[in-house]
Amino acid sequence: MSSVNLLYLRDKLTNQLYLLDSGAAVSLIPYSSVTEVPDQYLTQADGSCIHTYDYTNTQLRFGHRVFNVPLLRAGVCE
Predict the structure, then answer these.
(1) CA-to-CA distance for 33 and 74, rounded, in angstroms?
(2) What is the number of other CB atoms lying within 10 angstroms of the CB of residue 20?
(3) In a designed cystine with 50, which of 9, 12, 38, 42 is the match (CB 3.0 to 4.6 A)?
């Protein structure tokens, strides 16, 4: 059985924990809406769809550095 090591960083501005995936094409943030219609869909490895909405620009602070990061709002779990 293989072991998976994941890298998480905690944002010092919000105390929110973020999973770092350097191989990801886009960065997602959990979001759901009963009134908004999804803008587009992403396809997961198993073929199912992820509803996506729009990008939100988010400021994240790791250590002494602040980054402006575009995060795609998507119907994913934390």
Answers:
(1) 10
(2) 11
(3) 42
Query: What is this structure's pTM?
Result: 0.76
Provide the residue type at 70 as one letter.
Answer: P
Is it the case that residue 21 has pLDDT exceeding 60? Answer: yes
pLDDT of res. 2: 56
Of 15, 19, 6, whose CA–CA distance to 61 is shortest? 15
Instruction: Report whether pLDDT(76) > 60.
Output: yes
Which CA distances in Å does 57 have to 2, 4, 5, 68?
36, 29, 28, 7
Q: Is 71 helix (H, G, I), strand (E, B) or coil?
A: strand
pLDDT of residue 3: 58
DSSP string, 8-68: EEE-TTT--EEEE-TT-SS-EEE---SSSPPSEEEE-TTS-EEEEEEEEEEEEEETTEEEE
